[in-house]
Design a protein that fits this description.
Blueprint (H helix, E strand, L loop, with lengths): L1 H19 L5 E9 L2 H12 L2 E2 L8 E5 L2 E7 L17 E7 L6 E2 L2 E7 L5 E6 L16 E11 L2 H11 L3 E9 L1 H7 L5 E8 L5 E9 L19 E6 L7 E4 L5 E6 L1 H4 L2
Parallel strand pairs: 1-4, 5-8, 9-12, 13-15
Antiparallel strand pairs: 1-13, 2-3, 3-4, 5-9, 6-7, 7-8, 10-11, 11-12, 14-15
Length: about 270
């Protein structure tokens, strides 16, 4: 009963936030909760070429890759379930663009999934010349930046109403993916995924993954808190944010933050 009340309360809170939130200027960064900050920093900087920022600028540590950034925060909550699947609604991954990859193909874009030391899903992708931003064709380094953060959702229309109609992101692309390549990429037998990519004026995109098949993806636990390691947070910037730094959830329970864009607000 308590969990049911908490879940309903979370949805009402998300609806209230969506109604009141100003249009977002950018996806500022992705916050990633980790169990050991030192281990996570060593992984992201050593294996993936992220560059550490000012250690005084956040409660954790901001890491940069190209023009994008993530923030690692040490948390003491529950770990990501070991049996997590890509269609479970707590699923969220960072898509890191590389200049050269020779593994796993999907929809003309080379891609491969793996995980960080805490089990957060990560994706390496390489864009062909006719897709993606021009900067993704640079060859001077291997790791180029973060293209998007992908989240599993239960209903595309519901999530589009939240991210586009309430938060001001625009739809940048859609596709329906299925077949052997998609099954191999997502490790979900029989996967048929409706993909919708939304973007602000800058920053990583938000990619909605709506699994049309199979439909047995599990919901975000109703008692999820910011301490739980699956509670990655998409942090948005807006010129007229009234409640900078607040933590909210989207209709499926994914965590969102909103910070004020002081430069834009002053114009």
């Amino acid at each position: 009963m308590i969990r049911a009340v908490a879940f309903v309360g979370g949805l009402l809170l998300a609806a209230s936030f969506a109604h009141a939130a100003p249009a977002s200027n950018a996806v500022d960064h992705i916050m990633v909760p980790v169990s050991r900050l030192d281990r996570a920093v060593a992984f992201y900087t050593g294996a993936l070429s992220f560059v550490a920022g000012d250690p005084e600028a956040s409660a954790g540590l901001v890491l940069h890759l190209g023009t994008e950034k993530i923030e690692l925060i040490q948390r003491a909550g529950r770990p990501i379930p070991e049996d997590s699947r890509s269609n479970d609604l707590w699923f969220q991954h960072l898509a890191i663009v590389v200049s050269d990859i020779d593994k796993a193909y999907a929809g003309g874009i080379r891609a491969v999934y793996f995980r960080d030391p805490d089990g957060h899903p990560l994706e390496l992708i390489q864009f062909p010349p006719d897709k993606g931003e021009p900067r993704w064709q640079e060859k001077d380094r291997l790791f180029l930046g973060i293209d998007h953060s992908a989240i599993a959702v239960s209903d595309t229309d519901q999530s589009v109403a939240f991210y586009r109609d309430r938060l001001g992101l625009r739809i940048a692309g859609t596709s329906d993916n299925w077949g052997i390549e998609q099954e191999g990429l997502s490790a979900v037998p029989g996967a048929h995924v409706r993909i919708t990519t939304l973007r602000a004026s800058s920053g990583p995109g938000v990619e909605l993954l709506h699994y049309l098949m199979p439909t047995d993806g599990r919901p975000v636990p109703a008692d999820t808190t910011a301490d739980d390691l699956w509670a990655e947070e998409i942090v948005l910037r807006a010129a007229h944010a009234a409640h900078s730094g607040e933590w909210r959830r989207d209709p499926d329970g994914h965590a969102l933050g909103l910070i004020a864009d002081r430069g834009e607000a002053a114009r």
